Amino acid sequence: MPAEHTRPVDAAAPWAEGWRTVGVTGTNGKTSTTALLSAALRAADHGVFTVSTLSFAIDGAPVQAPRTWASLLELGARAAAGGCRHAVIEITSQALARGYARRWRYDVGVFTNLAEDHIEAHGGLEDYLAAKAQLFLNLSPGGAAVLNAHDPAALLIERVLPDDLEVIWFGAPSRGPQLRGGARYLGARAIEVSARGTRITLTDTPLAARLGPAPLEIPLVGDVFAENALAAACAALALGLDGDAVRRGLARCPVVPGRFEIVHTGPTIAVDYAHTADALARVCEVARSLAAPLGGRVITVFGAGGGADAGKRGPMGEVVGARVDRAIVTSDNPRDEDPATIAGAVAAGCRAGARAEVLVELDRAAAIRRAIAEAGARDVVLIAGKGHETGQLARGVTTPFSDREVALAAVADA
Asked: Helix/strand/coil (H, E, C) string of 215-260?
């Protein structure tokens, strides 16, 4: 892994000189972790500038602008003029590979996890991880690295960290064995998920004691969000926030659009952005946890994007096919590829999963309508892959399309 870094990094502009910034990277969970941490900062009465996949936001108010460096600087200056002195920035591997960890000064870095996504864009898994590691190699002296103690990739990042960083670990058992622990670990001893949100009982560590004895509660639905909440809490504590403020902020965090967003009940219909095998496995298990107590089924509508990472299509299908009762494979931003070819690879993986009944319906709107028409009141319909997106990209043309809107229209017509 390359160790190129320059520390300390200069502030991006004079108004950012006194700022404290958290960068959040990883394959899955970046947007939710960013939202949860921003909510904790607001609960502690800190003005916060947030940059995520969804939008820019100043003190929680979304601001739509092009995702460019110029927009970042313009809106950051506006946030500074309004009193913001903290920023939480979701930073992708592509941005890190372009050197963005040396263009904005980060004091705390959060690594959520590593899964197979955007691999081809980086040339291989090692280069993909190396890009993410750039955030941590360039953190401010005396800063903090918040790493997932249940992800082996975090141990590789740990090996290249500058010696003066504080290392804080977080994790939930649903990701796998705990690989790091000790006093600087914040973990989940138990996670309870319902349609109202997620409740996290913490392991007994000094870091957990700073948050108090009661479980953490968040309005986001799913054990993956418990993991994101733990990451956000660690970053907040690294910034010096009071445990009470962290707890209040997490509890008040709005549901993140397109992240297991429940848009209807009876049947339960959830829209999620999951588009990797890891993320799909986890959201399908959340859907199962909601359906099982009612004796209901899980029906999942999903596909795979075109243009890159063809190798992940079969594994995506297989994890869904092993976890749900009915899988409707459809189109998802095919770009310049044949949608039927993509769906064929996904459906083959689904059948290898050996549990789900598999159907292919390339018309995404028709697939969503069919899933909802087939669902009973106790069932869960999971519409995965596009989440918050409002367009469908094919043959160079983006057509307006929202999973949420199509689902609600189908319910209204039922």
From this structure: CEEECCCCHHHHHHHHHHHHHHHHCCCCHHHHHHHHHHCCCCCCCC
Sole residue written with tokens 């095919």: 334
What is the per-residue pLDDT for 127? 66
CATH-assigned architecture of domain 14-252:
3-Layer(aba) Sandwich (3.40)
The mean pLDDT value for 67-71 works out to 92
| Domain spans, the chain | 14-252, 261-413
pTM of the model: 0.90
**pLDDT exceeds cutoff 60 at 74:** yes
Amino acid at 278: D
Rg over CA atoms, the chain = 21
Task: Identify the helix (H) or strand (E) that includes residue 87.
Answer: strand 86-90
Looking at the chain, the number of H-run helices and the number of E-run strands are 14, 19
**Mean pLDDT of the 106-117 span:** 86
Given the candidates 1.10.8.60, 3.90.190.20, 3.30.420.40, 3.40.50.2000, the CATH classification of the domain at 261-413 is 3.90.190.20
277-291 and 223-238 helices, crossing angle to 10°: 120
Least confident range from 82-96, 113-127, 255-269, 275-289: namely 113-127
Residue type, 262: I
Q: What is the pLDDT of residues 309-332, one digit of tens each?
A: 888 999 999 999 999 999 999 999
